[in-house]
């Protein structure tokens, strides 16, 4: 963090110092409220670079997610669907690269250390695909105004919360992690990276309702329930529908299989090494199930979160 701050100019330092600040879930780390969402000071400069400099192409595909809602899975699915005619299944790039290396985050990877990265050479295949956790309202204007396609995935907040808490536990090193109750309290107040969760989800939900040709809104649980239908929906939305021949040849099932939790988790490339953020690749693959929250949340926590879901979601037409 100190190294990062050295690269900040006075104006940025002053701006960050003026932002509301809260303790993060891990001791000694802070979150700042930038443009209405909480973020680590490490990503504020990259977010500003992304917002200011990213030139969106109409052909771009953006994977937008709240952390721990299925980003890794959606990256693998979108990559495999879009570029399925570029390689044979036994030479699939997912066998040698992680989903996060194939579809890179803008603010926490591409712009992390470089305010003007060489975007030309980042995406091997075209159209370009990038990912972001930035809320809809804070996306660069060029992205909102262009004809690019955005695919969003959300997840039941109870599973998302537990996934995030356990993820923090893996990354905390020597630092203390808040107890599940304390982290839950923060989560209910919207305090976690890119939170409030409900604002993030509703921002993309409303935008997808207003512009369904531009934003596809998916749910983790729906993909789990019927991956073939969701893959066909994704392919159609991206303008590369599966042909009858492809369906007969089982291409949809092959994509589902190579992107499955079981397959990806066991690949050497996902077991070793670290992401550019320093996060070990293996930490992106934990259990991959629906409903694991029931092993962690007490009945009173569930009751509180259900109440919050009603409060936030009623009248939106979106349910979990
Ligand atoms: P759990 O912690 O509940 O297991 P993200 O990719 O947004 O960081 O989300 C991580 C969550 O997605 C983790 O959930 C992880 O195990 C799960 N996940 C990762 N790859 C997956 C896949 N191919 N299929 C289903 N779930 C996956």
Automatic annotation (TrEMBL):
Q: What is its EC number?
A: 2.8.2.-
- Organism lineage: Eukaryota, Viridiplantae, Streptophyta, Embryophyta, Tracheophyta
Gene source species: Hibiscus syriacus
Tell me the keywords, alphabetical order.
Answer: Transferase
Origin, by domain of life?
Eukaryota
Look up the coiled coil feature and give its residue ranges: none
Question: What transmembrane ranges does the database entry give?
Answer: none
Q: Recorded GO terms, molecular function?
A: sulfotransferase activity
Residues of the Sulfotransferase domain: 58-317
Q: Which family does it belong to?
A: Belongs to the sulfotransferase 1 family.
Q: Could you identify this protein by its name?
A: Sulfotransferase
Entries under InterPro entries matching the protein:
P-loop_NTPase, Sulfotransferase_dom
